[in-house]
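Researcher: For the annotation table, I need structure tokens for Solute carrier family 3 member 1. Please keep the output clean. Sequence:
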Amino acid sequence: MAEKKSKRDSIGMRMKGCHTNNGFVQNEDILEKDLDPGSPADSPQHIIMGVGGPEEPDFKNIQPYAGMPKEVLFHFSRQARYRVLREVLFWLIVASVLALTAATIAIIAISPKCLDWWQAGPMYQIYPRSFKDSNKDGNGDLKGIQDKLDYIKTLNIKTVWITSFYKSSLKDFRHGIEDFQEIDPIFGTMKDFENLVAAIHDKGLKLIIDFIPNHTSDKHAWFQLSRNRTGKYTDYYIWHNCSHENGITTPPNNWLSVYGNSSWHFDEVRNQCYFHQFTKEQPDLNFRNPDVQGEIKEIIQFWLAKGVDGFSFEAVKFLLEAKHLRDEAQVKKTQIPDTVTQYSELYHDFTTTQVGMHDIVRSFRQTMDQHSTEPGRYRFMGTEAHGDSMDSTMMYYGLPFIQEADFPFNDYLTRLDSPSGDGVFETITSWMERMPEGKWPNWMTGGPDRVRLTSRLGKEYVNVMNMLVFTLPGTPITYYGEEIGMGNILATNLNESYDVVS
């Protein structure tokens, strides 16, 4: 409407002989006085009215000015000098945004990520039976550990690592487990364990526990069902025919137990031999049976649901054995076969680190990952590889795109019998050079089945070794008592305690 009115006013002014200024003519071009009345141009009869639309403005003598109408603005914006400037500025902005994005991605990619809880502080390993005794019955217990949490906190410990406390026999550091989902009565009750977990978390600490999937006690319900060939439990353990006459067993092959002598034991109920890599009271589970793997994963989930923050998986290199029963090679080929009774006298190519073993360990990792989705609730996984070569130990870190253990426990410093600088240097550099890129190291000073620092190296080296592992890159792991230079205590009844491996 306003535009039509403007047109009408313009026409009207022309008909009256008036001059108009639509913004296209400079002010000085407008005459202050009327033209000569006698001029033919001013005569009404010479007025010409355009009927073809508004006349095109002349831009030749116009300069840009504030408030110019869009027709004028478009005219100038189409000029090369303005168009080129706009394009240059546009591409500069695009390039700046892309450069900033690339720089941000590069910084995120190359910068080290924030340390996870299992990387951020020391681990404190506790063998509960010889730790604090809260009820004066001669055995350390879970309440005793809870009573000492304030002391542990003063050591700047971030993770408490408790070794086996499951219902079990007194053999082999309580690794002959009778029930994976029960607390041994000498340590307390499940309620005591739940209270301990809550207390540990209340103090900002984490808890990892031992788990021994390779074998059970011969008192375990699975074994009792298996020896009677009951349903699916028939093949839960490794059984083979063997001859047994006059109390003498002839095993299927020459495979040996870690503690010496044959790893086969005759069972009179099933009338077959079962395989055990440790004591005869600890039959090996058959991990080639999918049902066994499923049972173990359910146990892992059980303890994760109780609030456990991670596991140390023990003896995993023994999970699988060769399907065949060929004899293992002797270290000394000239030795009489019947005299080969010690574990170190054979090469264990058929009974350790078999193809498929790492797949099973990775499946444990996958089970734990199902409980690691909540922020701050990542579940740690460590593996024990005692006795392995360093190259074999590194395999537990997993593959570049397939995670296994967060780290295999590094006990190589505990194998040093002398504190020589060359030996320490070689041990440390060997680990760091062999460790896969991007993985995290760790350093142990002791453990329940190892000689303590004081007894192994001498009191004068306790603080030196403690300082060393706490200054090396990675997670330091100390066995309780090492911080005060505790030494080994001579056991008076090995048959009862079995707390020392001979």
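Researcher: And a one-line annotation?
Model: The longest helix spans residues 80-110.
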